[in-house]
Amino acid sequence: MARTLTESEIARVLSYERLIPAMERTLAAFSAGEVIQPVRQVLTVEEGQRYFGVMPAVMRDHMGAKLVAFFPQNAAADRPTHLASIVLLDSHSGSPLAFLDGRLITEMRTAAVSAAVTRHLALPAARVLTLIGSGVQAQAHLEALRHVCRFDEVRVWSRTRENAERFAARHGARAMELEAAVRGADVIVTATFSRDPLVKGDWLKPGAHVNAIGASLPTWRELDDAALLGSTLIVDSRESALRESGDVILSKAAIFAEAGEVFSGARSVPRQATTVFKSLGLAVEDVATARLVYEAVIAA
User: Fold this and answer.
1) For the purposes of burial, counting CB atoms within 10 Å of the CB of 162, is it exposed (0-12), middle (13-18) or buried (19 or more)?
2) What integer pLDDT is reported at residue 203 of this predicted model?
3) Domain limits of the chain?
4) 213-271 pLDDT, tens per residue?
5) How far apart are CA 194 and CA 178, in angstroms?
6) Which of 69, 103, 109, 217 has the most CB atoms at less than 10 Å from its CB?
7) Can you tell me the distance from the alpha carbon of 59 to that of 36, in angstroms, rounded to the nearest whole number?
């Protein structure tokens, strides 16, 4: 009988210690052509406010799909902007194994992928982290990135100063103005709903690494042209980036590699390079995380 797993049950068994290496293996398999997955289908319910996505993926031993509601309008009401459900199936028989709440899985797998990329691309001596945005993904990235880097200083900026100050007080960070927060930072995370560029390439120090998490629509942006054209660009999926990422499409920046190619060693990026990882999120990440949770639950 298929299991139904709630967010609280998922939270008890899902950890970054296991999830970060699992995402490395999953994306290496994706880039090696071992995954069947289309670019997500996104229906616009209300432009700029409500979107509904369908994300299926098939791997060797498991397959599944995520249904995701992306509602930016929820932020104003202090409700989650991403809500999702995941169905996990046995790829040999097609039998359903589990139905999982997808909100926490989406949150954690996104941050885990960024952490995995950061481990490979950031300078070994990276000590200053800047978070652009103060919401769920800023908090998740702070937690995940601390598993791969030892930060002496954490900076945060938000459009709403009070939100940045509350985040800073909770997490021992410093609320700063945008340009000052970016300049001199070793690792930068942009996790916003911005539709226009926020971070300028002129602000990035040589060797800085940027995890660009927001701007997941073809007309939305977080980084200006200089930030993308002056950096080595890594994406989770070339096909997805060229269809969904406003930062990539509008800047016309050349994609150097997929994250999975970096993880497998198929492509190598010099550690002193200034790098940008454009994250869009892939169905295979959700399905692999759902499998990780399912196996942990049945083993308990």
Assistant:
1) exposed
2) 98
3) 3-106+283-299, 123-278
4) 998 899 999 999 999 999 999 999 999 999 999 999 999 999 999 999 999 999 999 98
5) 13
6) 109
7) 7
- Given a cut of 80, is residue 300 above it in pLDDT? no
Which amino acid does the sequence have at 71?
A: F
Confidence of residue 35 (pLDDT cuts 50, 70, 90): very high
Q: What DSSP string runs through 256-285?
A: EEEHHHHHHTSS---TTS-EEEE----HHH
CA–CA distance from 111 to each of 12, 87, 200, 205, 270 (Å)?
18, 21, 23, 23, 23
Q: Which residue has the tokens 């103060």?
A: 134
DSSP 169: H
Tokens at 248, concatenated = 């990539």
CATH architecture of 123-278: 3-Layer(aba) Sandwich (3.40)
What the block records as the tokens of 119 is 């481990």
**Residue 90 main-chain phi, psi, to 5 deg:** -75, 125
CATH for 3-106+283-299?
3.30.1780.10
Instruction: State residue 299's pLDDT score.
Output: 81
Q: Which region holds residue 248: left if phi is over 0, alpha if psi is between -120 and 50, else beta?
A: alpha
Total count of residues recorded for the chain: 300
- Nearest residue to 142 via CA among 105, 165, 110, 120: 110
Whether pTM > 0.85 for this model: the answer is yes
